[in-house]
From TrEMBL:
Organism annotation: Fructilactobacillus myrtifloralis
Subunit structure: Homohexamer.
InterPro entries: DUF34/NIF3 (IPR002678), DUF34/NIF3_sf (IPR036069)
Lineage: Bacteria, Bacillati, Bacillota, Bacilli, Lactobacillales
Pfam families assigned to the protein according to its UniProt record, in alphabetical order: DUF34_NIF3
Entry similarity comment: Belongs to the GTP cyclohydrolase I type 2/NIF3 family.
Protein name: GTP cyclohydrolase 1 type 2 homolog
Keyword vocabulary terms for this entry: Metal-binding
Length: 269
């Protein structure tokens, strides 16, 4: 038998909770740490439709990137869809764990996956993480070099292809400019654009850019691409591969699935 706690302990050797950013609700979310796991599922988000998918697929452990509890519940009124989702998880004995900024900062984690998807080479960290004793040097985001220079338009096309996007927002006065040094940070990283400037990036790729932040980027001369937050869904196959590797090494008696749902709330018409 393999327990939730065994899987969490192994993951936290890879991305300890000390790697997370201050105030981030990363870690154990809901359920029973000592529950036996038969089927686990990796996902970017824990939304009502994802919970129903887990129920339909007989999943007893959901491993997510985004925490299910960003904000504490004010009450447990089941008329609220979020509260109803918690009730469904508890009713079906599904345990939930979220690896958020600890996975973002971990070497070989989220931002390395994103950089690799674009083919970036010679990568280094973008935003330095405040070190604690005995920790390796950590950083959120990556800066790297494209194997060959390309225009911003070509890089935008590459992003759409590699991350399966229907659209991408471009912040630039010159879409035909040639770029090669690229900074990328998964999630909502607009406030970190000064780090991309400081590291002399030709272009900064991150999601959820605010209107005024985009104007500030243009004023500084830094080009940006906003592919959205959902590119972090790369975590689903990558986490599944990690857990299958550890399953083999530790002889866990589990099946590892990945969510088949697209939880991106935005569509392009």
């Amino acid at each position: 038998m393999t327990k939730v706690s065994e899987i969490i302990d192994r993951f936290e050797q890879f991305a300890p909770l000390t790697f997370k950013e201050p105030g981030d609700p990363t870690g154990f979310q809901l359920g029973d740490r000592e529950a036996v796991v038969h089927q686990m599922m990796t996902t970017l988000d824990v939304r009502p439709e994802v919970v129903q998918e887990a129920i339909d697929r007989n999943v007893d452990f959901i491993f997510a990137h985004h925490p299910v509890m960003f904000r504490p519940a004010a009450n447990l009124d089941l008329a609220n869809p979020q509260n109803a989702m918690y009730a469904e998880l508890l009713k079906h004995n599904i345990t939930v764990y979220a690896a958020h900024t600890n996975l973002d900062n971990a070497p070989g984690g989220m931002n390395d996956w994103l950089a690799a998807a674009l083919g970036l080479e010679q990568t280094t960290g973008l935003v330095e993480h405040e070190q604690q004793d005995d920790e390796p040097e950590l950083a959120m985001g990556r800066v790297g070099i494209l194997p060959q220079p390309m225009t911003l338009t070509e890089l935008a096309t590459r992003c759409k292809e590699r991350f399966n996007l229907r659209g991408i927002r471009v912040v630039s006065f010159a879409p035909k400019q040639v770029v090669q040094r690229v900074a990328i940070l998964g999630g909502s990283g607009g406030k970190f654009y000064p780090a991309a400037l400081a590291q002399h990036a030709d272009v900064y790729i991150t999601g959820d850019l605010f209107y005024h932040t985009a104007q500030d980027l243009l004023a500084t001369g830094l080009t940006a691409l906003d592919p959205g937050h959902h590119i972090e869904s790369i975590c689903k196959p990558r986490l599944r591969a990690l857990f299958n590797q550890w399953k083999t090494e530790a002889h866990w008696e589990i099946t590892v699935l990945e969510s088949e749902l697209n939880t991106d709330p935005f569509q392009f018409q």
